[in-house]
């Protein structure tokens, strides 16, 4: 693995801000567009979700459950090739009243697709007891 450049870290943080804003607007198809065509979610306690259409449906279901806002915090980024990076971070998910409904940690494998960084693999788990 290679140390990340500030540019890659900045780009990932900018895309994470778009992720947060898109989620806050309730735009599930916009969420899906942040992932590669072969993107995959690996949610805890659930089957893998692959492809942009399925990813959009997944995020719509999450929003329908009362999650209104997500906050992402990048802890570290490892540059693993010319067009790939791995991000470790933490998240908080909130409802419309700003109550924290879930918090935990995540790992995202980022891939450049058509010159833009996109989420290729997205796995997370909650700090809350199930």
Automatic annotation (TrEMBL):
Entry-linked Gene3D superfamilies: 3.10.450.50
InterPro entries according to UniProt: DUF4440, NTF2-like_dom_sf, Steroid_delta5-4_isomerase
Protein name as catalogued: SgcJ/EcaC family oxidoreductase
């Amino acid at each position: 693995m290679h140390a990340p450049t500030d540019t890659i870290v900045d780009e990932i943080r900018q895309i994470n801000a778009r992720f947060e804003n898109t989620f806050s607007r309730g735009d599930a198809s916009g969420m899906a567009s942040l992932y590669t065509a072969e993107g995959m979610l690996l949610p805890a306690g659930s089957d893998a979700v692959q492809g942009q259409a399925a990813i959009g449906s997944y995020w719509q279901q999450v929003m329908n459950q009362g999650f209104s806002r997500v906050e992402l915090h990048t802890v570290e980024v490892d540059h693993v090739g010319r067009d790939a990076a791995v991000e470790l971070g933490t998240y908080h998910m909130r409802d419309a009243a700003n109550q924290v409904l879930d918090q935990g940690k995540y790992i995202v494998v980022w891939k450049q697709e058509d010159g833009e960084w996109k989420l290729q693999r997205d796995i997370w788990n909650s700090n809350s007891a199930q």
